[in-house]
Specification:
By secondary structure, the protein is of the alpha+beta class. The protein is built from eleven helices and 15 strands. It has a seven-stranded mixed sheet with strand order 7-3-8-13-12-14-15. It has a three-stranded antiparallel sheet with strand order 5-4-6, with no helix packed on it.
Amino acid sequence: MTLSESEKLEIISKLKKSNTFKNAPTSSALLQYLFEATQNKSAIKEATIDIDFFGGSQNSDKTNPRVRVNVYNLRKKIASYYEEEGQDDPWQLTIDKGQYHIRFFKKEKKIKRKIDKKIAVPYIGLGIAIIILIFNQIPAQKPELWSNFLNQDKITNLFIGDHFGIIGNTITHGKGWTRDFSINNYTDFYKLLDQYPELKKQIKPSDFSYSTKMGILATQQLERFYQNYQHDFTIRFSTQSSIVEIKEGNAIYVGPSKNNSQFIPFFNEANPYFKLKENVLYLTNHPQFKNETFDLSSPKDTLEYAIVSKYPNNNDTEHFVFFSQHDIGVSATVEFFTNQDSIEKFTKQHLKNKKYFTAIFKVKGQSRTNTNIKLEKVVRF
């Protein structure tokens, strides 16, 4: 038995209207695009998807992983839907690994068998033991501070603040990778070439970016924290991510402010009393606190300010951002906000029934490792 086109459309529509897909506009749109391409018997390739769906160009960076990442996320959502909401659907769809076409198949019915009670008794005992073991391993109650991020119906994307690189001549008169803090994306790079056209034959954007030790440490801390609540997240790099991807689902950003992160405009828009401009944090117009500035551009990597903020995103999702100039600020604050005792104490003392906040910490450290963290100010809203 095969499905008609209208029956297939009905299945696609049902998935897009489900709770699994309701907060994932990119995944829903990508599902519709791949279905239509399949029905039209089009040859679907990664480059085609990048141009037709994401608006890339023929000269787009071939190493850009956004097609693979978004198709991977779509596969996960489809699997999640059929594990829960659609587990009784007689027909299902899938996107086979290595392929981009939509395939429909009929779910096999499970055959019920009579069980011999004598044989079943030891298995029942084993089952009870397993249940007890599982019960003892049930994750702790989710902290309210992270409740939206640990919601199983919502995805979380971790964005690591990497550094945009340039390939060209180095001070040793060879070819190598160069980092310029004023150039943080392709737009900045091509503005530079417009200003200095003589450089067009000497430099080009690098095929790879650079992340410091901070990225590894923060990822490890967040991974351990999420495992406690049987939840996961995807990992992305900020220089290779679009605004659409940042707005999809809950987002965590860990990294420096000096790389002109795409999260800074979101931070500035969502915070009623804070604005972050050119590595300076401004506190203004607060009914209780006097106007104040915090300079994040510390010349030393042993003492610096770190900024942590949780604020609303669109579609009932949130951002949790960790900014600092060097590694120690981000690493220390991520460790602080993934520690159960620290979270509980911070929530009780500083939030007082408020969901959102911006906090300023002063962090000391050695060799990119924090040794002391002090909370300077918390502004909730």
